[in-house]
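Re: [ENG-882] Designed sequences occasionally contain unexpected residues at chain ends

Forwarding the minimal case from QA. Structure tokens:
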């Protein structure tokens, strides 16, 4: 068995990582394993040298490497990476340290990642099937209350390149720039949710366009999985279809603002809703997440 010892020692020599450094978490998994992932891997998995921690890291790395080069996700790898890291770490049950209202396990084949660092004029909501590798994309609205800078905003004002015209005389911001979990704020929340059960709203815009199939539900309840989405249920933040959001084949979305919900167009919703089972992971990735170094849980 001496050849095994030689092989292991060679790994450490050429990776510039010592046993002591691995044991104390001073070097990231990224450096040791030569991964393509970025700081998020260190933030989520550094220091956990247990077999469970290493196994979760490897699952995360395999998932990320599988989807990172997908052409539909080429502009959203940061969002993808954080979503897959959270999924891998909390699949068996969301940690109570996350501060959300659910500690349920993540269920189903799909995750829904809305990359709000992209403007609403391009499809920015991604449906990723972790079992088959399928990726779908759609336009997505964001909260109308997130258009203006505030004490919660990482920026002073809407970046000039994201100012868009709304109606004959108004303007809006194509990305959300301020965020909150306060009821009636109509702001987009940052972070993670787990899907609850189906919901049938009487709001007219939920029912216009392609009719809900067989008169079934037009929205899905969302439960806050982290502190920043904790009030999702009390705010009635849900995933829903809406007539003011065009299909993915439309040339541009225009101004489609919600009360904070990650809404999509009627056809996309009808095509995917039955596959988004209770416990499906939803993730809102924003400019605030881009500035976050250490995940909260």
């Amino acid at each position: 068995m001496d050849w095994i010892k030689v092989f292991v020692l060679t790994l450490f020599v050429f990776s510039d990582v010592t046993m002591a450094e691995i044991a104390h978490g001073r070097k990231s998994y990224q450096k040791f394993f030569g991964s393509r992932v970025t700081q998020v891997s260190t933030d989520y998995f550094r220091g956990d040298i247990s077999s469970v921690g290493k196994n979760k890291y490897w699952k995360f790395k395999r998932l990320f490497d599988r989807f990172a080069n997908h052409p539909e996700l080429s502009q959203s790898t940061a969002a993808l990476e954080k979503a897959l890291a959270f999924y891998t770490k909390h699949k068996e049950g969301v940690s109570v340290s996350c501060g959300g209202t659910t500690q349920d396990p993540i269920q189903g084949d799909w995750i829904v990642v809305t990359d709000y660092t992209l403007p609403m004029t391009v499809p920015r909501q991604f449906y990723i099937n972790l079992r088959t590798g399928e990726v779908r994309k759609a336009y997505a609205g964001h909260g109308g209350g997130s258009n203006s800078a505030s004490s919660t905003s990482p920026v002073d004002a809407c970046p000039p390149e994201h100012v868009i015209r709304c109606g004959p005389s108004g303007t809006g911001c194509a990305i959300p720039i301020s965020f909150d979990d306060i009821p009636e704020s109509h702001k987009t929340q940052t972070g993670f949710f787990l899907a609850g059960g189906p919901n049938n709203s009487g709001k007219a815009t939920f029912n216009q366009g392609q009719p809900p199939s067989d008169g079934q539900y037009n929205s899905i309840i969302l439960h806050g999985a982290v502190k920043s989405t904790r009030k999702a249920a009390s705010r009635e933040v849900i995933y829903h279809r809406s007539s003011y959001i065009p299909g993915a084949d439309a040339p541009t979305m225009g101004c489609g603002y919600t009360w904070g919900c990650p809404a999509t167009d009627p056809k996309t919703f009808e095509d995917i809703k039955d596959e988004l089972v209770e416990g499906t992971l939803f993730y809102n990735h924003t400019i605030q997440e881009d500035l976050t170094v250490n995940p909260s849980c």
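QA comment: On inspection the terminal residues look reasonable. The chain has two domains: 1-69, 90-290. Proposing we downgrade this to a documentation issue.
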